[in-house]
Design a protein that fits this description.
Helices cover 35% and strands 30% of the residues. The chain is α/β, with parallel strands linked by helices. It folds into two domains: 47 residues; 80 residues, Immunoglobulin-like. It has a four-stranded mixed β-sheet, with no helix packed on it. A hairpin with a 7-residue loop joins strand 7 and strand 8. The protein starts with a helix and ends with a strand. The structure holds copper (II) ion. Copper (II) ion binds next to loops.
Length: 130
Amino acid sequence: MNGQPALSEAGLIGGVGFRRSIGWIIALLAVWLLQMPLAHGASKVVASTVHIVSIQNMQFVPAVLTIQLGDKVTWVNNDLVRHTASASDSQFDSGNIPVGGSWTYTAKEEGALGYACRYHPGMQATLKVQ
Ligand SMILES: [Cu+2]
């Protein structure tokens, strides 16, 4: 008795409701997808810090620098001769940093990494990435 109207009623409401739900889900997905790149880019800018290592008197100053993953390190050559900042495991290598020049590296892996100058092997320092 009640089965017939109930079925058609349920079918009608179910059909419209279903289409509305799908519409909302698509709309929400579109908003979410549009906001993703913006949010990602914004968080990247905020998280990145630039650290300076001064090269002076045949030394890296500071000799030990601790940074966060994604941070940048800029080596500035304040010395009288050219130098390099070359990681012992080849993870990074500045190449020549001329007098008055600089070179920037963005930390991509965690861990403590020793580096040295190719021209002056006695110039050694450590970059710790957390
Ligand atoms: Cu050097």
